[in-house]
């Protein structure tokens, strides 16, 4: 509770709202003790006194009554009626909701049908009908406002109760022989109360507003008794001649409702765990770049050259080093595989290149990515956007999530083309059909007007590839494009990619966790672990003679067809969490070859010819020594 | 599509019946003799007895309901005692005026709310976002009747930009321009609260959508950020926004009651309040049933719009 209030107090607006509300409520409670004039004593010779006049700080109304005193008493009444309506609505609504949710079946069905009917009314019609039947008056207005809000509470509480009624502890209570009444009171109710309180905190301002509204219409409090609404209603006829009699009660309603809303928002934010982690942040158009050092110069290796890339995620006070200094390069017509477990930083590396890492929380803190000598990292947005899809394009993992669900695939293809050149509709459509044909989608002329959900997973991924091809890019970065597909479809997609590479001279960066795919497609491969490349070389050398213990273990995880009885070895333990990377080799804790020195300093990627390995005691070395 | 619309229309029938039952039951709560309540202090014993017989109030409750429903289905909503005029005629005439006011306000709040929400989300935590958030908070906290009164004071009395109240001038032509000048303030005052609610919802719906994978795809294609926000994100966010527009239409219709009083707008809300104060029960009953039924129909339109937007909704 104290922690909750502390959390709430950190929200400055909520704090202000809370303080104002407490002050108003305190004043309303103390009103009978304050030295105020009698609010109902009329003095027509003294009517419409202005603000700050002698003996009446806020002036007087159309009957010469002291406005300050009437304001205080009116506030008291409005608050009382609003709170009462909220409590009545919450109590009845919760009771109805609990009964419906707990008993379920037909009881639930009938009750919720009724609730739905009530919610089919614009709320004021219901309130007006109730007041019409019962007659105008403050109590009847209270009943009307409470009744209108009962369905809202009933529906909320029912939802929560259904969840609780199926929990084990309720079953246990039932087995212990408790009656339904006892279970509801001792097991269900305590779990529902917090929800009731939250629902009340968000609706109470509304109820104060509504009761004031009915009084304003003359259907609530009747003279001489006045709440804020009826004060405003009575002052309306003198609005133009004596506006202060309207402004005083009106401002009070505004202050009360606004402070309640501020506080209510604060309560909701404090209780919503999704907001706590900052997960609801919107990713910006490009990843934030904040490089501490001057990026390293290009060495002119390959078409795309990534140098010392570091990408971090800043979540609250923690810094996750997802990519911790990666060097890569890929040449025209070449296919580079990046392989590693989930969380090894391979996808973040790939997304960093065109600034597609979600930011916040992502941030590129070091390094460069040279395309044809030009650094893509930190490039102005306009230039970066122009290069996206035209020079470097992406294929993503799950094609159902990565295609827009509400646009036809043809329109999404045409848009990809139009993002980079002017093309009319007919030509765009023809080009889109050509693209679909290029990725071997049968019946392309018809499929072009399909929505993504009307296609199979394999077809969708072909659309994803077609989209990446739309502007004849120089490089395609494929981020686990076959992971979500079944094996036969996977093989087809890989064949398409391989053919495209050979026929168009594309460079492909292929990210995967599957050595089989690497063997089939890639010329070179980089193995990533905990945000760094631990081994790199041509596919054949790495597959034949892996040198990093991690690579070797990773390959031992892959079952071999026809390989006979061989133990499948999972790697023990988990990859390190990248906000607390150990010193030295990140794999040390899981490595069976770990020796002294492995946990110290920075271990560099040592190259012998085209084969680099980041290990002090690589596999195969001892054999060489032994020979 | 036609099948979906038909299905949706059919599903409205039980709701409409439910509405009439609820209104009927509320009216059955009237303490004492309903005929006396309807006729008020002018009632003579003879009149009361005659009315009871005419309305079938001497019969059991279920039978009364069936008679009442049957009458309404044939267009007979009864006669207003205060106005001495068929209820349906009065309601239809007044509802026109409400439709003009609430319809304008609804279009206003839908557009402004969605646009404000999108701008707010696209500039999350920026100056525009903070400004919009504050205005929105003010908007949903201010009572619309108070706002209306302040607008009269400022724009009509001080600046003399708009007429103080009413829908038409007593003398002069009934042109569109005249109507618009009368409509500007009440429609704006009515739209403010709903604009705030819609802006808030649109902002959170947009933030939700902007984190989705297909937004990253659009960016990877090289689509300009404007296109990403207004074409890709907004279209997907509308799936969550449109149902709320349907709900907000109910709030706009409700708020119209206050605004019609403040601006002397000759709509159905003012008619209902007058009828309640005059104890003209049949007029209240007829007005409530009619407007509620219109609202149900409007929500069908919203559902159909939703299914047009989202092809995944199967008919």
From TrEMBL, chain A:
Keywords annotated in UniProt: ATP-binding, Cell membrane, Membrane, Nucleotide-binding, Transmembrane, Transmembrane helix, Transport
This protein's record includes keyword Cell membrane: yes
Primary localization class, coarse: membrane
Domain ABC transmembrane type-1 residues, every copy: 75-264
InterPro entries: AAA+_ATPase (IPR003593), ABC_Ni/Peptide_Import (IPR050388), ABC_transporter-like_ATP-bd (IPR003439), ABC_transporter-like_CS (IPR017871), MetI-like (IPR000515), MetI-like_sf (IPR035906), Oligopep_ABC_C (IPR013563), OppC_N (IPR025966)
Pfam families given in the database record: ABC_tran (PF00005), BPD_transp_1 (PF00528), oligo_HPY (PF08352), OppC_N (PF12911)
N-terminal signal peptide: none
Membrane topology: Peripheral membrane protein; Multi-pass membrane protein
Keyword Transmembrane helix annotated: yes
GO MF term set: ATP binding; ATP hydrolysis activity
Family: Belongs to the binding-protein-dependent transport system permease family.
Full protein name: Dipeptide/oligopeptide/nickel ABC transporter permease/ATP-binding protein
Species of the source: Marivita cryptomonadis
UniProtKB/TrEMBL annotation, chain B:
Alphabetized InterPro entries for the sequence: BPD_transp_1_N (IPR045621), MetI-like (IPR000515), MetI-like_sf (IPR035906)
Bilayer topology term: Multi-pass membrane protein
The organism's taxonomic lineage, starting at the top: Bacteria, Pseudomonadati, Pseudomonadota, Alphaproteobacteria, Rhodobacterales
Keyword Transmembrane assigned: yes
Native source organism of the sequence: Marivita cryptomonadis
Signal peptide: none
PANTHER family cross-referenced by the UniProt entry: DIPEPTIDE TRANSPORT SYSTEM PERMEASE PROTEIN DPPB-RELATED (PTHR43163)
Domain ABC transmembrane type-1: residue ranges: 95-301
Transmembrane helix among keywords: yes
Main location, first listed in the record: membrane
SUPFAM superfamilies the record matches: MetI-like
A Pfam match: BPD_transp_1
Family: Belongs to the binding-protein-dependent transport system permease family.
Name this protein carries in UniProt: ABC transporter permease
One term under GO cellular component: plasma membrane
Keywords: Cell membrane, Membrane, Transmembrane, Transmembrane helix, Transport
GO term, biological process aspect, one: transmembrane transport
Residue stretches spanning the membrane: 12-30, 99-122, 134-156, 176-201, 236-261, 281-302
Locations listed in the record: Cell membrane
């Amino acid at each position: 509770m104290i922690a909750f209030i502390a959390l709430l107090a950190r929200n400055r607006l909520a704090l202000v709202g809370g303080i104002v509300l407490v002050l108003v409520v305190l004043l309303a409670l103390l009103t009978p003790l304050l030295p105020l004039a009698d609010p109902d004593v009329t003095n027509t010779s003294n009517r419409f006194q202005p603000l700050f006049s002698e003996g009446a700080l806020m002036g007087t109304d159309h009957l010469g009554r002291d406005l300050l005193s009437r304001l205080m008493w009116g506030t008291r009444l409005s608050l009382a009626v609003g709170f009462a309506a909220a409590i009545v609505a919450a109590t009845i609504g919760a009771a109805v909701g609990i009964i419906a949710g707990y008993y379920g079946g037909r009881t639930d069905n009938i009750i919720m049908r009724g609730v739905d009917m009530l919610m089919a009314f614009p709320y004021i019609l219901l309130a007006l009908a109730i007041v019409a039947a019962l007659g105008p008056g403050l109590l009847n207005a209270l009943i009307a406002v409470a009744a209108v809000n009962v369905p809202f509470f009933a529906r909320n509480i029912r939802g929560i109760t259904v969840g609780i009624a199926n929990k084990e502890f309720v079953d246990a209570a039932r087995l212990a022989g408790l009656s339904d009444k006892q279970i509801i009171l001792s097991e269900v109710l305590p779990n529902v109360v917090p929800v009731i309180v939250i629902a009340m905190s968000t609706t109470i301002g509304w109820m104060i507003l509504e009761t004031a509204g009915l009084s304003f219409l003359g259907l609530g409090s009747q003279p001489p008794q006045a709440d804020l609404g009826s004060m405003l209603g009575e002052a309306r006829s003198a609005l133009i001649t004596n506006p202060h009699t309207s402004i005083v009660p009106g401002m009070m309603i505004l202050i009360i409702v606004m402070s309640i809303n501020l506080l209510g928002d604060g309560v909701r934010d404090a209780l919503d765990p999704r907001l706590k982690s900052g997960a609801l942040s919107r990713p910006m158009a490009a990843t934030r770049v904040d490089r501490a050092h001057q990026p390293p110069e290009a060495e002119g290796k390959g078409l795309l050259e990534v140098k010392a890339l570091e990408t971090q995620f800043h979540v609250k006070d923690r810094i996750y080093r997802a990519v911790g200094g990666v060097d890569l390069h890929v040449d025209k017509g070449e296919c580079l595989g990046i392989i590693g477990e989930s969380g090894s930083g391979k996808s973040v590396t790939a997304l960093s290149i065109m600034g597609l890492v979600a930011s916040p929380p992502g941030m590129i803190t070091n390094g460069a990515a040279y395309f044809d000598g030009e650094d893509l990292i930190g490039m102005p947005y306009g230039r970066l956007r122009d290069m996206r899809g035209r020079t470097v394009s992406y294929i993503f993992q799950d094609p159902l999530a990565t295609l827009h669900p509400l646009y036809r695939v043809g329109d999404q293809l045409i848009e990809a083309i139009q993002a980079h050149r002017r093309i009319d509709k007919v030509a765009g459509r023809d080009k889109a059909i050509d693209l679909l044909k290029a990725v071997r989608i049968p019946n392309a002329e018809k499929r072009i007007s399909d929505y993504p959900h009307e296609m199979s997973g394999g077809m969708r991924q072909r659309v994803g590839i077609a989209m990446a091809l739309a502007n004849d890019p120089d490089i395609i970065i494929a981020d686990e494009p076959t992971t979500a597909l079944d094996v036969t479809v996977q093989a087809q997609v890989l064949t398409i990619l391989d053919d495209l590479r050979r026929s168009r001279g594309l460079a492909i960066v292929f990210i995967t966790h599957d050595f089989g795919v690497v063997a089939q497609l890639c010329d070179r491969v980089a193995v990533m672990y905990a945000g760094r490349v631990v081994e790199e070389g041509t596919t054949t050398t790495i597959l034949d003679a892996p040198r990093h213990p991690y690579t070797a273990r990773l390959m031992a995880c892959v079952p071999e067809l026809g390989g006979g009885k061989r133990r499948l070895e999972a790697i023990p333990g988990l990859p390190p969490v990248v906000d607390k990377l150990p010193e030295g080799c990140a794999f040390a804790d899981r490595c069976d070859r770990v020796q002294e020195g492995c946990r110290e300093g920075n271990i560099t990627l040592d190259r012998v010819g085209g084969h680099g390995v980041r290990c002090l005691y690589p596999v195969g070395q001892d054999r060489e020594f032994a020979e | 599509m036609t099948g979906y619309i038909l299905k949706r229309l059919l599903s409205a029938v039980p709701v409409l019946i439910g509405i009439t039952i609820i209104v009927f039951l509320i009216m059955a709560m009237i303490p004492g003799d309903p005929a006396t309540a309807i006729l008020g202090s002018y009632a003579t014993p003879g009149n009361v007895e005659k009315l009871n017989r005419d309305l079938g109030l001497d019969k059991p409750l279920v039978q009364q309901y069936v008679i009442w429903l049957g009458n309404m289905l044939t267009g007979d909503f009864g006669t207003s005692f205060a106005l001495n005029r068929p209820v349906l005629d009065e309601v239809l005439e007044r509802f026109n005026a409400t439709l003009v006011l609430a319809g304008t306000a609804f279009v206003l709040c839908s557009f402004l709310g969605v646009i404000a929400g999108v701008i707010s989300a696209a500039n999350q935590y920026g100056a525009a976002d903070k400004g919009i958030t504050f205005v929105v908070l003010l908007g949903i906290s201010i009572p619309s009747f108070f706002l209306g009164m302040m607008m009269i004071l400022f724009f009509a009395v001080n600046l003399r930009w708009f007429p103080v109240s009413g829908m038409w001038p007593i003398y002069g032509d009934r042109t569109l321009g005249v109507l618009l000048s009368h409509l500007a303030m009440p429609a704006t005052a009515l739209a403010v609260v709903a604009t705030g609610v819609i802006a808030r919802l649109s902002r959170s719906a947009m933030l939700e959508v902007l984190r989705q994978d297909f937004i990253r795809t659009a960016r990877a294609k090289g689509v300009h950020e404007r296109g990403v926000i207004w074409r890709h994100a907004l279209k997907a966010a509308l799936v969550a926004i449109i149902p709320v527009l349907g709900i907000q239409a109910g709030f706009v219709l409700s708020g119209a009651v206050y605004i019609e009083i403040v601006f002397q707008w000759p709509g159905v809300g003012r008619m209902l309040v007058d009828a309640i104060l005059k104890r003209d029960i049949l007029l209240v009953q007829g007005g409530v049933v009619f407007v509620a039924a219109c609202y149900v129909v409007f929500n069908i339109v919203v559902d159909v719009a939703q299914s047009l937007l989202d092809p995944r909704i199967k008919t």
